[in-house]
Each structure stands twice: as C-alpha cells, then as structure tokens.
C-alpha cells in the first residue's frame, strides 16, 4: 500500500525536510508567483523563452529603435563580426572564463535547477503526492542499497529511509521522478512484500542524483543490501568467453567489487552455465562465505567470498525469486527465469537459515539437459532397440526407478519427446514442472489446494490424453489410477524410489495394489544411476591389476550373447588424470547405467502372484537381463568411465 505522509509530526514518519506548496512560504516558486513581476528579483523569475523575447523587444523600443531595424542591422554586421572573430581566434589563444562568464554560467545552472524543481512540483500535484528536495533531505545509505543502482537509475527512484512502526510492520520512503514508469512500479510492488507501508515522494532527476551518489559509500557488512535485476544475457555471454573452467571463474570473481551485486550475480551464473553446473551453493561461514558448484553430480569449491558479497548475492537472489527480504529466520523457496537467447533457463531457489546467516542453493534447469536423445542417455544398442519398440506400444506402463538425482526425470522427458507427435495428446503431472516441453500440456500438483497426483491424474483422464507422464507414484490411490489408465488405452510413464528394477514390483504391492492387475499393466521397469564420463583430453590407461581382475569377473557373468560380444584376451581400461578442460577432476559430463526388465508372459504370471524382490530378480536374470553393474563394466571397457565411478554408483566396495 502506497501511503502519502500525513504530516511531519506523525510519530511513524521518518523525519525528512519536505517542501510542498503548503509548507513553503519563502523562496518557493508558488510564493514568488504571487508577487507582482516588478517586485520579483530577476533570478527569481521563471525562465520562459517568450518572456525573454518580449523583454528584449521592449528594450529596443525604449531606445527608439524598431525591432526589425535592429535585426536588419544585426544581419548586416554578421559577416564583419565573423571575419573579425576568425582573425582573432587565429592569433589569440583561448582565454580562461572571466568572472562575469562564470557568474553567468552559475545563473544558467540555477535557472535549469529551478526549472526541474518546478516540473517536479507540478508532477507531484498531478499525482497527489508530496514533493521532496533531496539536496537538503537526509538519506540513509543502507536504505539506498535496497535497490540495485543500475535498476534504480533505470527506474528513476531511490529508497531514502526504512522504519519499524510502533504498532507493528515497517515503512519505507521512496523518491521517484515518474510514478508511471513501469520498472518503478514493479520495484514498488516487490517492496510491498517487505514493507507494510510505502511513503512515495516526487523528486527531480537532478535532486535524485544525490541519492544515487550514496551507492559510492560502502555499506556496513550487516546491512541488507538487496536489489532487483534483470539478468543481462550479453553480460553472461561476455563472461562465458572469459571462463573456460573454475580457475578462470575464480580470477573473474576476485575482480568484481563486493558492492556490485548485479555484476557479481551475472558472473556467478555465467560461470555456472559455462562449467555446466547443475547447482550453485552459497554457504555462510563465521567470517566469510563459500561458493560451490555441483558439476557432474559432485560438489566443487569455487571461491571464498567476503561476508559483504554473501549478503549482496543472497538478498539479490531472494528479491529476484520474490521471497520475503525481511524474513531471515524461515526457509523459503522461489524461482526466476533467465532469457538466454531464444531459450529460457528456469532457476529454482531454496534458502534456509543457518548458524552464520542464510544459505542458498540455486538449481539451474538448463534446457540442454532435456535435449538429449535416447542414445545420448547411455542406452546400449540392444537396450535402445527394446526401448524404441516399447515406446511404440499404445498402452501400458513404463516405470523408471532410482534415488533422487539418478536421471529419472531426464529419461522420462526423453521418452516423451520421442513419442510426442501432432497426432497425439501428451499431458504431464509434475512436482514441480522443471523443464518446459513444446507442444505438451504440463501441469503441476498443488497439494495445499487439493490438486494431488491422484486428483490431477483423475482430471487428466478427462482431457482425452494418449500419453501421460506422472512425476512419481507415491501412494496406493495414485498407483491404482495410473494402472487403470494404462489398462484403458493410455501409455503412461512414471517413477518410483527403489534401489533396482526388481524392487518396483514388491514396492507397488506393498502400497496395496492388486498384483494381478499390476501384472497386466506393466510393460517395462528400468533402474538407473549416473556416472561421470572420463575426460577425453587427459584420461590414461589404468595399470591396476585388481581393476582388470574385477572387470574380467563381471564380463564372465554377462548373458551369453553379450559375453561373446565383449569377452576378449586383454581389456583396455582407463583412469582419470585431470586437466584445465575438466577442472582438474578427470571427468567431464555424465552417462547413465541401466538395467531393464521387460515384462513378458512368464514374468506377467510371476508378478500376478505377488512375488518377492529376489524372485523377480532371479526370473529376470534368465531373460538376457543385465544389471547396472554389468552395464557399467561394459562402459568401462568401452573407455567411457572408470572402475571407481561404477563401483561408487552401484554400491560395490
């Protein structure tokens, strides 16, 4: 709510010296305008071109010379004067301004200033807002920093003071030049989330420069230094050209002033995009802050930042994400979007209070992650044939399993992109919608409003879909509706949290699903993990005999067809080294390890009886099934990943 101050005696009003028509009696344009022209001093008169012209004409008449005669005489002597001045300038060096000239310049400056203040007063009247002269008003440096300098100058405003009100709530005083400026309106709207009252004043552009000069002052480290910015894509691209790895980013961050929140955030985001980080972590410590990136699933330290930089970044991101700036004792979630060329990058933000300040994690939902094809995910050729065939079926369920961060969503999106055509209606039900897919209807659950997976799935079935993606099956109700959809002519994709593919069947039965109905609906169950790819620029041969022994034993356990294809007298396996290209980790990028259980007639009969996890796994092993460990070893001998990565992913010592 925007509130104009009632009077200077209001106990909740921040003391400012305000100049309004009813408060000024001396030296104000309003008061001077009431005086006859003869009583006003020349410097107090408004500067008007027509008045100057008329007074000049009157002067000529008083001297007995007609105006047109004077103009004619002026024209006749013009050439003579020009010749004289040209000769003089050639022979005489430029003179320093004379005292008379300086006084004239001062007079002109004063006239211009008065003009701007008059226009500001007029605009204040038009919008029924009080006028303020910031050249004589106190300004709080910490309050100014509530809005980023770049945005403040673009919007033509400044925050002058903040105040906690006696009866609860808080107030902020803002001066602006144009209340109709759209960016100014957006900033005011965001400030209302943190302040119960906004007292808005009109100031002249010249006057506002005094407030902007306060950005040069260094605010205290405990100050709330926040701001709203639009992510500058050109700046991000410029930074990306300079950043090839984390080391380059460290150098660039050190060059940015801790006070320049906009530039600092642009550098951090550009660095994250360039290094293909999935998450940005900003962790408050006792004396400083630690910036870390999650690259290829592993957290890497980037740089230690001053405490001031931590405040700048956290509060800037909170403002962008439309969080409450004045609440530092609660967890908050938000999101914003980066318009990056023709594509848009969604950014999901989480803030929690910690011992030394607020910690923030930014999840970067880069569209590149879902532009992968089935082959790019890491499916072997034999698996690829099976998946492509199953995706062409008109109905049934395909379930992917694995822990958080194992690539399940990416796999499901790849399935959807493969089957989505103009002839088919595809609807998703997600929590939340992370990536936007073209030509697909995406919906997000809202449990607080009663729109759960179960309720959403019921609603989707009334939308005449051909293909449905359900983000996760969490309970019996959702599972039963999903199975019903799969049995009534819909192809449905979903996920479960189980350790392997065989565990999906007993998990659904434990939820209360009838195993006989489940067996008829299931087409395929996949389990997956992600492992890091070896850097192709620095990987080298592994000479550890124990690793070769491990690989040989797993190859010997493969189904006969794959064993014949991959078994050889000598294997070549590689290990990571590290170079600038891979941030000295030895890895760059990730690939999936998969196990796929295809539900044929034999397995369908087994599932109908409610089998245990061991029975499902044993039955699948006789169907040319390969588990994730075996798939990982095939990728090891193909030079894609390392023994260490595979063992870590599948839980082998």
Automatic annotation (TrEMBL):
Compositional bias segments (type: Basic and acidic residues): 32-54, 66-100
Domain Bacterial type II secretion system protein E: 461-475
Alphabetical UniProt keywords: ATP-binding, Nucleotide-binding
PROSITE patterns: T2SP_E
Entry GO MF terms: ATP binding; ATP hydrolysis activity
Pfam families: MshEN, T2SSE
Region (Disordered): 1-100
Domain of life assignment: Bacteria
GO cellular component annotations of the record: plasma membrane
CDD domains assigned: PulE-GspE-like (cd01129)
Family, per entry: Belongs to the GSP E family.
Protein's name in the database: Bacterial type II secretion system protein E domain-containing protein
Protein's organism: Candidatus Portnoybacteria bacterium CG10_big_fil_rev_8_21_14_0_10_44_7
Lineage: Bacteria, Candidatus Portnoyibacteriota
């Amino acid at each position: 709510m925007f509130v104009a101050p009632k009077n200077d005696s209001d106990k909740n009003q921040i003391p400012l010296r305000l100049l309004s028509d009813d408060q000024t009696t001396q030296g104000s344009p309003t008061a001077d305008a009431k005086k006859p022209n003869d009583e006003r001093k020349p410097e107090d008169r408004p500067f008007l071109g027509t008045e100057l012209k008329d007074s000049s004409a009157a002067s000529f008449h008083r001297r007995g010379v007609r105006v047109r005669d004077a103009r004619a005489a002026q024209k006749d002597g013009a050439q003579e004067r020009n010749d004289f001045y040209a000769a003089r300038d050639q022979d005489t060096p430029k003179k320093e301004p004379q005292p008379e000239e300086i006084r004239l310049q001062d007079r002109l400056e004063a006239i211009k200033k008065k003009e701007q203040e008059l226009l500001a007063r007029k605009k204040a009247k038009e919008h029924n807002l009080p006028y303020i002269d910031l050249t004589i008003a106190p300004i709080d440096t910490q309050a100014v920093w509530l809005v980023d300098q770049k945005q403040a100058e673009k919007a033509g405003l400044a925050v002058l003071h903040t105040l906690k009100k006696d009866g609860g709530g808080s107030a902020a005083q803002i001066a602006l030049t144009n209340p109709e400026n759209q960016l100014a309106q957006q900033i005011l709207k965001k400030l209302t989330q943190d302040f119960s009252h906004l007292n808005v004043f009109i100031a002249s552009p010249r006057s506002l420069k005094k407030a902007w000069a306060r950005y040069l002052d260094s605010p205290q480290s405990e100050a709330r230094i926040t701001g709203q910015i639009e992510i500058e894509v050109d700046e991000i691209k410029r930074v990306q050209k300079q950043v090839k790895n984390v080391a380059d980013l460290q150098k660039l961050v050190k060059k940015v002033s801790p006070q320049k929140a906009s530039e600092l955030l642009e550098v951090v985001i550009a660095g994250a995009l360039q290094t293909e980080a999935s998450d940005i972590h900003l962790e408050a410590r006792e004396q400083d802050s630690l910036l870390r990136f999650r690259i290829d699933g592993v957290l890497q330290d980037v740089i230690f930042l001053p405490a001031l930089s931590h405040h700048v970044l956290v509060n800037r991101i909170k403002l962008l994400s439309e969080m409450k700036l004045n609440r530092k004792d609660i967890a908050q979630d938000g999101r914003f979007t980066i318009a990056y060329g023709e594509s848009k990058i969604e950014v999901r933000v989480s803030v929690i209070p910690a011992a030394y300040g607020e910690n923030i994690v930014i999840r970067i939902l880069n569209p590149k992650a879902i532009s992968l094809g089935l082959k790019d995910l890491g499916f072997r050729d034999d698996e690829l044939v099976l998946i492509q065939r199953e995706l062409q079926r008109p109905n049934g369920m395909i379930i992917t399993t694995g822990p958080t961060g194992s690539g399940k969503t990416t796999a499901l999106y790849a399935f959807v992109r493969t089957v989505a055509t103009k002839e088919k209606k595809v609807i998703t039900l997600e929590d939340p919608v992370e990536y936007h897919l073209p030509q697909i209807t995406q919906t997000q659950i809202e449990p607080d409003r009663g729109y759960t997976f179960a309720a959403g799935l019921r609603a989707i079935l009334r939308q005449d879909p051909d293909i449905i993606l359900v983000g996760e099956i969490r309970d019996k109700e959702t599972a039963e509706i999903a199975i019903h959809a799969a049995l009534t002519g819909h192809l449905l994709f979903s996920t479960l949290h189980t350790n392997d593919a065989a565990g999906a069947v007993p998990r659904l039965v434990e939820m209360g699903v009838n195993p006989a109905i489940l067996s008829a609906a299931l087409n395929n169950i996949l389990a997956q993990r992600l492992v890091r790819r070896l850097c192709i620029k620095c990987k080298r041969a592994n000479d550890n005999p124990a690793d070769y022994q491990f690989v040989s034993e797993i190859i010997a356990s493969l189904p006969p067809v794959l064993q014949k294809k991959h078994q050889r007298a000598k294997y070549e396996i590689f290990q990571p080294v590290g170079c600038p290209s891979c941030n000295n980790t030895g890895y760059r990028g990730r690939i999936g390890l998969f196990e796929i259980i295809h539900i044929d007639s034999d397995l369908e009969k087994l599932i109908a009886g409610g089998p245990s996890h061991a029975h499902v796994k044993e039955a699948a092993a006789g169907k040319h099934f390969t588990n994730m460990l075996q798939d990982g070893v095939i990728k090891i001998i193909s030079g894609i990943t390392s023994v260490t990565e595979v063992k870590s992913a599948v839980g082998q010592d």
